[in-house]
Amino acid sequence: MSFQPPVTLSDQDIAAVRSWIIHEDAHVIAFDKPSGLSSQGGRIQAHTLDDLLWAFARSNGKRPDLVHRLDRDTSGVILAGKTKPATAFLGKALQAKRFRKTYLALIESEPDPRGGEIDAHLLRQEVGRESHMRVVEEGTPGAQPSRTRYRTLSANDQGALIELEPMTGRMHQLRVHMAHIGRPLVGDARYGGALTFSGGAAPRLMLHASRLTFPHPEGETLTVEAPLPADFRALMDRAGLSL
């Protein structure tokens, strides 16, 4: 009897997830995740990226496993291990802070200073069925230390394009940190971001995981990049921002 995965995928599902591949070898597979797709779990009754990994299942029932997550509305690079040893290796490297993640984001006005590091403790709170993070004082029970580096790449009177590098991996960290310094991300309704940008609507959270550098199970260091999505590029162009 042939192996049947626990998730039924359509031909369109399989074609879609295969079209998102930006790197694949014997050990790892990297995707350019579109905005609006949950990495795992999620309350929306739709396939997640984790579900879609069944498209790569082998006859013995083994399939790739995600190594990390991105918020549903964040686009860009996300990594999976193709074998159990590879996934375990990458998971340990992630815990050891050997991953370097680089994001691009749009904000309404240039930060002051133009670059720097945000060091603020975060506390997770449940509000109804939603999880939120908020900045709290060091020593608050349950608070987690978190750090983000940022720098301005392009800015004018229409807005700014910034590069973000999380030094820790807390939920919603980049979004909360930028809101904390008075520069919430465009399209981020949860943390006070504007839903318009440069005179037009912002279609979603304007946060893109553009580059990921990580130790490869075979020994070298690998960097994978995801190009800017069309909606992100369109807002940049409308505001006259350049990369």
Characterise the protein shown here.
One of its GO terms (biological process) is enzyme-directed rRNA pseudouridine synthesis. Residues 27-180 form the Pseudouridine synthase RsuA/RluA-like domain. It comes from Brevundimonas abyssalis TAR-001. It is built from 5 helices and 14 strands. With 243 residues, it is α+β, with helices and mostly antiparallel strands. The longest helix is centred in the middle third of the chain and has 12 residues, at 84-95. The strands form 3 sheets. Strands 1, 2, 3, 4, 5, 6, 9, 10, 13 and 14 form a 10-stranded mixed sheet that branches. Strands 7-8 form a two-stranded antiparallel sheet. It has a two-stranded antiparallel sheet with strand order 11-12. It is 18% helix and 34% strand. The mean pLDDT is 94. It has helices spanning 11-19, 49-52, 84-95, 173-180, 230-239; strands at residues 21-24, 28-33, 65-66, 75-81, 100-107, 115-119, 121-127, 130-136, 147-156, 159-166, 196-197, 200-201, 207-215, 221-225. It has a single domain (11-239), classed as Pseudouridine synthase. Strand 7 and strand 8 form a beta hairpin.
